[in-house]
Write a structure and sequence with these properties.
Number of strands: 0
Shape: globular
Structural class: mainly alpha
Helix content: over 70%
Order of helices and strands: HHHHHHHHHHHHHHHH
Number of helices: 16
Length: about 450
């Protein structure tokens, strides 16, 4: 854990981004396998059940996304300032928050799941299967949430290959167990859940091993440092604002799924398949957004305003190259991928109808994804919170105006509009971020 090197090159950006992109490539593959193995049953209900069950759990987990983002920003700034003790202390704080959050989720699973299905109009068959799925997966919540903190800590130190190893292990174990439990043993939806449960706990163990350097010095067990009031207060403020931002973002995606479910099981299944394309976009752009998080945070920690701007420009240029390739790939191969993911003819037809929206997502979402990374690294969490609130209002207005007259087409348009709103509003706040970079380091 040494101070960040001075050289800022395209190679350094790619050294962070490429391993993240490779590791994230297994995330949509995992979602596709989850969907595909139950899709071989030839029915829409199991696809919808795995989709809606995973979305509910992921929505709660993503609420704790503040843990990864806050940990990246604060740790990269401490790293840029050369504060090795604080780097170790931040990992301990992240682990404690993650495990506590997961245990809370287990305790509150009853009311959490009840509330989720109160707002979901899914059919009785889909709901029953989804409940079985979630009742198994929830027991790995402490591990899954704590890994957010571990991942953020590793990214902040530019240990992208360690993040890649962790992600590849997690998703590789999950995929192998998916195929065995579902196609081999015939466990159906519950087999998908058991596979994820085991993969998430194994990832937690591997993550601790990858972070072993933090436990080699005394800082991680220094109670006075770990629980320092001023530093805890800053971490709480950053995490609070990112949490609010995450809640608003999740409200958009969860409402998207639930509104889609109101159009029937076939549309729900089609939307779930197309959401995998959105995950491809998010996970690909995450490589460059994560590079921006780490390098912007280090620039802020070192109080190097000029370096911050160079990071923002370099990472965004590579992001543009990425989205052009993604949009082209979806246009050319989207129909084939849909056919691979399900054998249900009516689901295939519905998914193809809405595929053009997914071709547009990469270009439309570029600014939002990249600016998220820049603002995370700078720990400008209040701006992220406020601009997401504006974007949420824009999404709600668009959905209210478009869904009644355009149905699922209107729902997809509202989602695209929300991406545009996020990019525009954060872009308007970027000059203030740059002006204050030297003061917030």
């Amino acid at each position: 854990m040494t101070a960040a090197p001075d050289a800022l090159t395209h190679g350094r950006v790619l050294k962070i981004a490429v391993p993240i992109m490779i590791s994230n490539a297994t995330v949509p593959i995992l979602g596709a396998v989850d969907t595909g193995v139950v899709g071989q049953m030839g029915e829409a209900a199991p696809i919808g059940a795995v989709g809606i069950g995973a979305i509910i759990l992921t929505a709660v987990y993503w609420i704790f996304g503040f843990l990864r983002m806050g940990t990246v920003g604060l740790t990269s700034q401490a790293h840029g300032a050369g504060d090795r003790a604080e780097v170790s202390a931040l990992l301990m704080r992240a682990l404690m928050i993650g495990v506590a959050g997961g245990l809370t989720m287990i305790v509150l699973q009853g009311p959490l799941f009840w509330a989720a299905f109160q707002v979901s109009p899914a059919s009785a068959e889909v709901e029953a299967l989804a409940r079985d799925y979630m009742a198994i997966r929830v027991w790995s919540a402490p591990a899954a949430i704590a890994v957010f903190g571990i991942t953020g800590w590793l990214i902040a130190l530019e240990r992208a290959r360690a993040v890649m190893l962790l992600q590849l292990w997690t998703n590789g174990v999950n995929i192998v167990l998916d195929l065995w439990f579902v196609l081999g043993l015939g466990w159906g939806v519950e087999g998908v859940a058991f596979a994820t449960f085991l993969a998430e706990w194994s990832a937690f163990g591997l993550g601790l091993w990858l972070c072993r350097s933090a436990f080699q010095g005394p800082a991680w067990r220094d109670v006075g440092l770990v629980f320092n009031a001023a530093r805890l207060g800053r971490m709480m403020a950053v995490n609070r604002d990112i949490l609010i931002r995450s809640l608003l973002l999740e409200a958009i995606f969860v409402s998207f799924l639930f509104l889609g479910a109101g159009f029937g099981d076939v549309t729900l299944a089609a939307n779930q398949i197309l959401v995998q394309f959105l995950h491809v976009t998010a996970n690909a752009l995450d490589g460059f957004a994560f590079a921006a998080e780490a390098l912007v945070g280090q620039a802020v920690g070192a109080r190097a305003r000029g370096r911050l701007r160079r990071v923002a420009v370099m990472a965004s240029c590579w992001g543009l190259v990425c989205v052009v390739m993604l949009a082209s790939g979806f246009a050319l191969l989207g129909g084939w991928l849909i056919d691979v993911m399900t054998t249900a003819a009516e689901v295939r037809q519905s998914a193809r109808e809405f595929l053009p929206y997914m071709v547009a997502v990469p270009m439309v979402g570029l600014a939002a994804f990249m600016l998220d990374g820049i603002f995370v690294g700078a720990t400008r969490a209040a701006d992220m919170r406020n601009m997401m609130a504006v974007s949420f209002v824009v999404y709600c207005a668009a959905a209210a105006a478009l869904v009644p007259t355009m149905g699922n087409h209107g729902l997809w348009l509202a989602l695209l509009i929300s991406f545009v709103a996020r990019g525009v509003t954060l872009g308007l706040r970027y000059p203030a971020l740059e002006r204050q970079a030297a003061l917030t380091g």
